[in-house]
Structure formats: C-alpha cells, structure tokens
Fold this sequence. Notes:
The chain has helices at 13-23, 30-38, 86-100, 115-123; strands at residues 3-7, 42-49, 56-66, 69-77, 105-110, 127-132, 143-149. By secondary structure, the chain is an alpha+beta fold. α3 (86-100) links the parallel β4 (69-77) and β5 (105-110).
Amino acid sequence: xxxxxxxxxxxxxxxxxVVEKSCFSMPWSRQSFWEEAVKKDAYYLLAVDCSTDIxxxxxxxxxxxxxxxxxxxxxxxxxxYQGRGIASAMIKKIIMIxxxxxxxxxxxxxxxxxxxxxxxxxxxxxxxxxxxxxYYLDNNEDAEIMWLIFK
Length: 151
C-alpha cells in the first residue's frame, strides 16, 4: 500500500464524506466538507491510498485556525486501514503544517471512552486539561479537552 498526504480540495468533499460516515455516528455532510475546503481559516489534510491508478481518500484530519491556535475538528480513518500507523502519520504531518503557519498551540475534544484516540493524542504530547459536560449529542457523553503547546 502506498499512502500519500495532501490538502483537501472542494472536489474531495464526496470522498471525505464517505470516510466520515464510516467513522462517526453523527457524520458531517458533504456540503460541510466542501465549505471547510474553501475556508481560509481551516486546513484539512487527507490520507490517500495511491496503490492503484485510482486514488482513494482513506482518512483526514481537519484543523480550524483560530486566534493563533489550531483546533482539531475531526480525525477519521476508514476502519480497514486502522492499525497501520496512518493516523499517527496524519497527526504528525498536521502538527508540522500547523507549526509552519506560526500556530503556537493545538486543542481538541475527544470522547473519554475512545481509548485508542486518547493514546494517539498523548503520544504526540497532548495533555488533558478538563472536560466539557454532555458534549456529544448522540449519547450525552462528556468531551475530554486536550491541548498541545509548542515550545
């Protein structure tokens, strides 16, 4: 398998929606991804399987750029590609991209029950700083708030 990483374009919205629906119980719409792709204050990095002649979007990480901070909106990877280091590569690459833009810190919310995601973020230095009660509408679960401050 050959995976490449690139910035999301508006024409990728349908493919990103497929990834989104495979990962989340309350997925964003294709229109949402199209809108995110054209925003100047957002950056979405795609993981693309280039093993065949047809490139297939298999994952993404999105970041909103707000007041010198990066807010990770979502990290998603098609289930059958998980466990191969692709999510780690996406996080590593988005951190490098965001830092190169002069961003000083990054934050995100994650379900406390999502141990795999918590370990991934902790691996890159994200630290838990608190919770947002009843953040997730599908089951009323809290959100763990995590921050990464660049030195």
